[in-house]
Amino acid sequence: MSTCEFESLEKTLETHIPEEELKEVKRILYGRETMPLDLPSCAQEAASKRDFELKGYRFEAAEEQLRPPRRTRVGLIQNRIVLPTDAPIMDQINAMHSRIGEMVEVAAMCGVNIVCFQETWTMPFAFCTREKDPWTQFAESAQDGHTTRFCQELARKYNMVVISPILEREELHSTMWNTAVVISNSGNVLGISRKNHIPRVGDFNESTYYMEGDTGHTVFQTQFGKIAVNICYGRHHPLNWFMYSMNGAEIIFNPSATVGALSEPMWPIEARNAAIANHCFTCAINRVGTEHFKSEFTSGDGKKAHHDFGHFYGSSYVAAPDGSRTPGLSRTRDGLLVVEMDLNLNRQISDKWSFKMTGRYTKYADDLYNAVGHDFIPNIVRE
């Protein structure tokens, strides 16, 4: 079975492991069981008709005496590109808008409050090619571009916060960024969060196209909780998650585009680790499919030139601060994951484990300050 045919780890486990053993396997792999979320039949029917997977789960928190539950529903959308990579640019963008629009409609049927799309969702992940044309033509204004206006309509129509990661063009200096536009459920642009860390590994030649972000670790106060967006490669940097958490994020979204040969063993671990370490919920979103490009490109590794750089393996999931996580979406299909969470769980787990309270951050701040200095001498004891 090829990588792009393997549907999911969960399906394989359920097929081959006896039911009683499976409970223990899932407990070890996923922590506390996340209960299925009862989704409307109309949503199930619409997802089936539109050919995408729909799953729902819920995280519960203990009942408190002084605080009511703070339940919110998030929607994670993963999808493949709709048209070939050499189709006219506006046709590709409009096709993606149409596809995402019908998936968001189903999210609204499921009562989703905050929806997040995958990294640079309006275009192929063409940065592997190192060609500037035509890919830079997909870049748009974060404030009033075609895609932002489309997402504003969705937000108003469905009373939903929309996180829209795009290739941004800032016209004043003609600078491009990998940017998540956060749109309030009122339809207003709440702000932007630019990708902090740019990979320089394999075919991920992203520094050819856009710069490291300059928006820091912004957290957005929404009607449904405080959220942040840690774009793709930033998930490999623990301090990146940490600083969003330090600024008060209750839910951190990680819209990504990553292929199996490179990072799949890390995928189920990193967002879950971040949820545990930072006493917050994390949402990992990855695209699916294999994207083919007309021009061959090489990876600088001595191997033959190729027209694609691998299979995007989906597997989107949500992790909770207690270390539990949902099963992932398919590795091969478009999908919508709907997750209900009680944000009270963040403080409950913080009170239990006290990672932040016992963090000794002043000490680390001093040590880091010294470590980045030109005259730094490592503290190593030798015989």
UniProtKB/TrEMBL annotation:
One of its GO terms (biological process) is beta-alanine biosynthetic process via 3-ureidopropionate. This is Beta-ureidopropionase. One of its GO terms (cellular component) is cytoplasm. Belongs to the carbon-nitrogen hydrolase superfamily. BUP family. Transmembrane segments: none annotated. Pathway: Amino-acid biosynthesis; beta-alanine biosynthesis. The keyword Phosphoprotein applies. Homodimer, homotetramer, homooctamer; can also form higher homooligomers. It is found in: Cytoplasm. Its EC number is 3.5.1.6. Residues 72-343 form the CN hydrolase domain. InterPro entries: Aliph_Amidase/BUP, C-N_Hydrolase, C-N_Hydrolase_sf. Keywords: Cytoplasm, Hydrolase, Phosphoprotein. Catalyzes a late step in pyrimidine degradation. Converts N-carbamoyl-beta-alanine (3-ureidopropanoate) into beta-alanine, ammonia and carbon dioxide. Likewise, converts N-carbamoyl-beta-aminoisobutyrate (3-ureidoisobutyrate) into beta-aminoisobutyrate, ammonia and carbon dioxide. Its main location: cytoplasm. GO terms for molecular function: beta-ureidopropionase activity.
